[in-house]
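To the team - histidyl-adenosine monophosphate complex, inputs and output below.
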Amino acid sequence: MDVKAPLGTDDILPEQAALWQRAEAAARALFARYGYGEIRTPCFESTRLFVRSIGEATDIVEKEMYTFGEGEDSLTLRPEATAPVVRAYLEHNLHKSKSFQKLYYIGPMFRRERPQAGRKRQFHQIGVEAIGATDPLLDAEVIALACHLFDELAIRGYRVRLNAIGTPTSRGGYRDLIKAELSQQSEGLCPDCRRRLDRNVFRTLDCKNPGCIAITRRLPPILAHLPEGERAHFRRVADALRSAQVPFDEDPYLVRGFDYYTGVVFEVTHGALGAQDALCGGGRYDNLIADLGGPPLGAVGFAIGVERLLMAVQAAAQPVEPQPLDLYIVTMGEAARRAAFSYLAALRRAGIAADTDYEARSLKAQMRTADKLRARFVTVLGDNELASGSLKLKHMATGAETEVCGVEGILRAIREHSGQGAGGLELNP
Ligand code: HAM
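Output:
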């Protein structure tokens, strides 16, 4: 059978999974420190949710959604999680118990994009949504949190870009202005951007075509065209980031691919990622909760692409060592294999990482495996040991051997050794 994983999807094998677990554990620990609780929503939602929130004239809704079913019953694999989180927040009346909620999620997202390095059709996001406040300090805290996670994972050389894009109302004047300017130079724009002039003129600012970049970079920056209240919000976010020592660049041409953003937006890029260099994107979406039928509450959040995050971690050249094994039991013969099985059951329940051979291989082959698994202790179990009831536990780093009896004896020896500071094993009481 010649069946492969679908285009744009990846299998995550145990060796890579160790890196994933490390990133996810760092995120969970940090999010808890910042007061975020986890939320898990379904991988598919009503199509209407995404059309309504992301916007009909966006690339995602126009051509990248995996949608099945018709009309009211139409469902879509989630291309992002902000709208689903707000949907769940409202559906479960979270705003009635405590309107301000800090929520985080980790999980797969689906976009039918043209796959390339760092661009997948199933990818994963680690994201946060702080719902229920409009304080600019919260925008800054959310950005600082993303950077804190990159720092925890020893990622160097990331760059934060910051802009404000206003609300659909407050950016109306700027939209008309750039539409008029760009219409006069439309022959210099790519066919996609010419189409965007009418559909969604702000997306022209995001085009990677050099001809379009040359034209759009001559447009006036949006910030100067927003109302004073929104400019003051932006300044407060920038000041708070400076006070938290989070480096950032103002980028007047930064726009985002979703219609729900209403104010400060940001992206974090990293040089090791190639053409798809966005590690993280986010911003404020103060209209979305009301648009989805809730009260008028402000919100801000971000999502980090996990595949890209791990590319950046690996660029920092920090190999993640797999968890070493505490004990490897080498067995000689069928009776020893059965005895090892019961030893392992008890040891693992006592918190010891232990393993054995399942292929009845030679002593030499089993010793090689113990070495490969970086076992701290090795014991050989054969007819003599079964008859005497005692085992020799060999500490591989020093070669020292300890004679022990039964599970209790093994546990005591490993514990004593860890108590001396070697390995630092923590056992369950
Ligand atoms: P986004 O910018 O579309 O924002 O995605 C966030 C991150 O997900 C990107 O910076 C990138 O690292 C990763 N990503 C996006 N598409 C792909 C892909 N096809 N393959 C691999 N990685 C990808 C959002 O999704 C918003 N919901 C973020 C947000 C949360 N805004 C407010 N709250």
